[in-house]
User: Fold this.
Amino acid sequence: MSIPAKPLKTFLAASGVLLLLGLLVYAGWRIDPERIRQWQEDAPVVPFFIALALLPLVGIPTTPFFMVSGAAYGIFVSLLGTMLALSANLILSFAIARGGLSPLLEKLLAKTGHRLPDFDDKREIHFTIMVRMIPAMPNFVKNYLLCLAGISFPVYFGLSLLISMLYAAPFIILGESILEKDTTDLVIAVVLLLGLSGIAHLVRKKMQH
Assistant:
């Protein structure tokens, strides 16, 4: 008897995520604690979060930043710094996309296979949530796509920051828990990641109908 394609795809995706998390945990547990302590003392806070605000504008992934910040600065500082950095990144992305570079960005988006949608203003919240929850699309592509699509700034900024922070928080906790070898926070981070993935899947499925 053959296995349906969708359940199999979901199972393989979940298995891949769990395998990746397992490798990260194993690597974290093998790191010398003294080296980590020294690195934490030398890690500059402000330049790190400036880099988080600027480098994703050109396609650098944000997830490694979240984990490193959790390990280097702790949960509270990381959440605050990440929120400020992502806010700046969203504002800069909006300014770039709505400025003189919009024709170039439209060509770049076309090469990635994504095209600008045609929708009315009443559906911009629906569209923004859908784009933000596409798992395979890079974050900087989501930003520029939403900006070029004509989403109003309050909707773009508010929903993007909220969803991005919900995504960032578990990875920040994960980064801190791995290097602190805190199994409680580790379990919390994994449960949050799996829970958010499940919620995102249900929301996408509901909005597609």
About this structure: The two ends are 29 Å apart (CA to CA). Residues 43-207 form one domain. The chain has one domain: 43-207.
